[in-house]
Amino acid sequence: SYELTQPPSVSVSPGQTARITCSGDALPKQYAYWYQQKPGQAPVLVICQDTERPSGIPERFSGSSSGTTVTLTISGVQAEDEADYYCQSSDSSGTYVVFGGGTKLTVL
Amino acid sequence: QVQLQESGPGLVKPSETLSLTCSVSGGSISSYYWSWIRQPPGKGLDWIGYIFYSGSTNYNPSLKSRVTISVDTSKNQFSLKLTSVTAADTAVYYCARQTRYSSGWYFDLWGRGTLVTVSS
Prior knowledge:
By secondary structure, chain A is an all-beta fold. Chain A contains no helices and nine strands.
């Protein structure tokens, strides 16, 4: 079955830049989406179609894509950005949905 | 604005059937795809499947033999049934709106989630 691979954890100091990667063979064909999930809350969409920011999401959140890897970048990280981040995409045929394993972002 | 709310038993016995309902308020269930996603405690998100308002469905192959998702447009609700549950099915279950873009999918609206524990 198709899988998306994320690092389990990323740590940064406030004000620095955090980068979270997600790798998958179908990513050149399928868009990736990023969700932020804080403890006890439902996920929130922060990046769609690889690079687009939904309404209401701060400008410090951005996305990029290169080959089989997509990256979520958070510039000028704030304490409130500490959360789990999940990438999500579809298999190459667009039939099934898949989530990455999630990355815990710690703000030191 | 459109809101989703999950409801159902929080405790299910092993080998029995888990049943949940998602109520859609503030908008119509028609013309959209609706999904169930679960998250075991301390673990990641796992897509269960979706239903279109017309009734067509698609399920995660890993759960397909045990899952049924149905829709009741008159009540603006859709439901999940998962049979023969075990402790591994203990999770927070989310309902969500699944949206098609290009040839893929994403989730633009989520319920708050409901914890279902499988235990005798």
